[in-house]
């Protein structure tokens, strides 16, 4: 596992908001957000925008619950936000997430994805101790981790963790 180095200089990791249970015969991939999830996605997107957290590029899993979450961010950030949907983020490994981040040349990149991979990516970037100290209860739905690269330490650090 290779931890990405800048660019990007800032990484946003956003776990999709709470999803509905699958209907009989419905694929996991096609589960939308539930009512709470839609509200939480709007709240977290607005909180991020209010704090000035604006990625240059948003990369989202193509799963419906991630697209629903990404849509809320798009509305909150403005219609100029570059959004890309990537199939490889669904059922991906932590290495896939890190490779996708590492392949970007924008200053700030947001991934909208799934747990447990989102939590594993955060841990890979900031280390086990920082992860355990910051998120003892795990990575919640609609949680947004904001990471900045600390050039003096040549390491990523968790700058903020925004929750609903």
UniProtKB/TrEMBL annotation:
Keywords: Hydrolase. Its EC number is 3.1.3.-. InterPro entries: His_Pase_superF_clade-1, His_PPase_superfam. Gene3D superfamilies: Phosphoglycerate mutase-like. This is Phosphohistidine phosphatase. SUPFAM superfamilies: Phosphoglycerate mutase-like. GO terms for molecular function: hydrolase activity.
